[in-house]
Amino acid sequence: MSDTHSIEKNPLRHIAIVMDGNGRWAKKNNLPTIAGHKAGAEATRRITEAAAKHNVEYLTLYTFSTENWRRDERWINELFGLLAWYLEHEIAILHKNNVRLKTIGDRKRLPEKIQKLINKAEDKTKDNTGITVVLALSYSGRDEIVRAINTIINDSKNGIIDSIDEKSFQGYLDTHDFPDIDLFIRTSGEKRISNYLLWQIAYTELVFEDVLWPDFTEEHLEKAMHEFKNRERRYGLYVA
Going by C-beta distance under 8 Å and a sequence separation of 6 or more, which residues neighbour residue 19? Predict the structure, then answer.
């Protein structure tokens, strides 16, 4: 089978990445943990540019999980400080490059400053037509589904809906405006989903890379994309 035929068979619109290994990268290089996250932010910029170059429409990045709230407060504050800097200084570049920024997750739990910066960034880039970068912040798949169910319960009580199916349920998810995930990538060698986009990855192709996220390059991305495009996606159908 030629690569051309494979690409046509497997259109690649949406990539999700678990950007794992920032802390281990810092430890490996005898640096403080925050240095690993700064290097990870550089990798994010690099991979966003590469994905856009390859005409990927959506890139969803697991940035801060609901489970991360249980981590050390200093670590959380350092990470949100870095995120605030990114939102204040990088959005102009993203906007110039026609990138649209969106977020998913329980935004109400985020620091007020971060919420305001997200609102400003989303508003500034809302009309851009290039790649959409989705930051998963205060997010987990189970939490997303529970929040969706609670909204459905309220809508049912208020007479807005009287039944639910897969399509209508999907409309209550944080990702209701996005296509399902085609390719899921996790770095650092760990082979777990880690409560990420549980509904959306029902038929997603999974690729696990041994490289730590700060060392993840365009070549690694292209390798994962090539593997995806040469897989046979059956969507639960039996092919004799």
Answer: 40, 43, 44, 61, 62, 63, 187, 213, 216
Distance CA 112, CA 148 (A): 23
pTM: 0.91
Averaged confidence pLDDT in the chain: 93
Read off the pLDDT of residues 126-136 as tens digits, 9 standing for 90 and up. Answer: 999 999 999 99
Catalytic annotation present for 20 = yes
Catalytic, out of 10, 68, 128, 195: 68
Nearest to 205 by CA among 2, 7, 12: 12
Catalytic residue (one of 3, 10, 20, 106): 20
Residues of the chain with pLDDT under 50: 1-8, 240
pLDDT at residue 232, as a whole number: 79
Handedness of CA 59, 47, 13, 18 (dihedral sign): negative
Superfamily of domain 3-140+179-229: Decaprenyl diphosphate synthase-like (3.40.1180.10)
Residues 6+ apart with CB under 8 A from 64: 79, 83, 105, 136, 137, 138, 139
Active-site residue flag, 127:
no
The predicted-structure confidence for 82-121, as pLDDT tens digits, reads as follows 999 999 999 999 999 999 999 999 999 999 999 999 999 9
Give how far Cα 2 sits from Cα of 57, 58, 225, 226, Å: 23, 25, 15, 12
